[in-house]
Write a structure and sequence with these properties.
Two copies of one chain form a homodimer.
Chain A: E1 7-14, H1 16-19, H2 27-35, E2 40-48, H3 52-65, E3 68-72, H4 83-91, E4 95-97, H5 99-111, H6 118-122, E5 125-127, E6 131-135, E7 139-145, E8 148-151, H7 155-162, E9 176-183, H8 187-199, E10 205-214, E11 220-230, H9 233-249, E12 255-257
Parallel strand pairs in A: 1-2, 1-3, 3-8
Antiparallel strand pairs in A: 4-5, 6-7, 7-8, 9-11, 9-12, 10-11
Helix pairs in contact in A: 2-7, 3-4, 8-9
């Protein structure tokens, strides 16, 4: 049987506010969850500030090492929105206000009776050779150039843009996941058995994640979530059974969780 | 006057679960918020999977470009915890179970009457030349090697370890921030004036962040937060005044927000 095709994504999150601690990113998780059912696995993510050279360097690294790259942030109308220009620089193409993008923005703002200022026109700056990505929330489009998709940083707008991205992607083998939760057990109670299982099950990747929950009555609850991930559903099911048994052998009561949690 | 010293941090978040979408990282924001008052600014963050070559490559890039590097994740007792070995490989030093780390772990587990398995002993694997970082939550230590601090991925443990990190850091000039919130105004209403302000105020960095809030009665509320950041408190105060005036000029009512939000 042919080895299933591995399709990878790089995610580049752009914005001073993500590095200063002001804002906690939510887009990476959203993108990963969106891509997973398409058979596209996020291989690496980087977070950089609104500085052209940092964006260019990170983008060039990711777009050569990953099948696709998804960027968020820096495509609004203000002076600190420099992503489009940086992407053009990374690809070595020119950039200017483009008629197709301007038409979209003009139409959007005329409907909402908002004046089309010079700053808003800047949002029509699109690199040569790029195709537009529809923004169903605030009008100003994102764009695709080569294997790179450039999207807004505001989560609601980013999610809207993803809808115009999915049909452009060629996915690979879908990675499925099974989670077995072992309340009351620590990683160290399970580690030896997990190591043996992983060594004998190369087509399944097994992860172990301790958790600590403060319950309502103040008593801490702890345990370990075991996650098996694989493109092979049969191997995954066997690994799931094995994980259940490992938890039982350690004196725990395994709980099979929603498979959507990867 | 001498230019204030710029001290930077790279953050390396390690773990398949962060890239698969299973887990949303909270450590980056925590680290950034912890470092800011020390005068250390996060310059770049990377998120990589539990694969040795990816960890080594990212760590070597960050530790040469930043003053300090902080890693989270991959130092537990299970087979997928390979961070310590990868860090040793990145530094080209050997690694083995070390007596000082083992003593800490033995002491911790004997108090909690938890058996010290071979897997738990693995948590005493510390690279040659590293110093231990105390873990006040679950015992097994992190470590410092050169300019790199290796910490746990579980947020509660990571926060605990930071307490034993602060005193080892030499900070620089502290970046202060002022946030002016402009409810009801969009970025495009303010962009021209912001551009002019930024062009004339090079010692202050001005950021603009649109927000969309779904209110309880379902009516969306939108607006723009303007953030000025600077190591120069005088310049920052002037910029704050200028931002307030820009919002008023655009017909809005500026609200000065808690300065702790960077």
């Amino acid at each position: 049987m042919a080895k299933p095709k591995r399709v990878t994504a790089g995610v580049l999150l752009i914005g001073d506010e993500l590095l200063s601690g002001r804002t906690r990113d939510v887009n990476l998780q959203e993108i990963a969850t969106f891509l997973a059912p398409l058979g596209i696995a996020v291989a690496e993510a980087r977070i950089v500030s609104d500085e052209a050279d940092r964006i260019v360097m990170a983008l060039n690294a990711l777009r050569t090492s990953c099948t696709y790259v998804f960027t968020t942030g820096g495509i609004g109308p203000t002076h600190d929105d420099i992503t489009a220009d940086a992407v053009a620089a990374a690809f070595g193409v020119s950039i200017d206000v483009r008629d197709d993008a301007l038409a979209v923005i003009e139409d959007w703002y005329s409907r909402s009776k908002t004046p089309l200022t010079e700053s808003r026109k800047r949002m029509a700056r699109i690199p040569d050779g790029a195709s537009l990505v529809t923004n169903p929330v605030t009008g100003a489009p994102g764009f695709q150039i080569g294997n790179v998709f450039v999207m807004a940083g505001v989560p609601k707008i980013m999610r809207g843009m993803l809808e115009d991205v999915a049909h452009r992607l060629e996915g690979g083998a879908v990675t499925h996941a099974i989670t077995v939760s072992a309340g009351g057990l620590r990683e160290g109670d399970l580690a030896e058995a997990l190591r043996t299982l992983q060594a004998g099950t190369l087509e399944v990747s097994i992860g172990s994640y301790p958790f600590f929950i403060e319950t309502r009555d103040g008593a801490p609850r702890r345990g370990t979530n075991l996650v098996a991930r694989s493109t092979d559903q049969g191997a995954l099911n066997s690994a799931g059974e094995a994980l259940m048994q490992i938890v039982r052998d350690a004196g725990g009561e395994p709980v099979l969780e929603d498979g959507a949690k990867r």
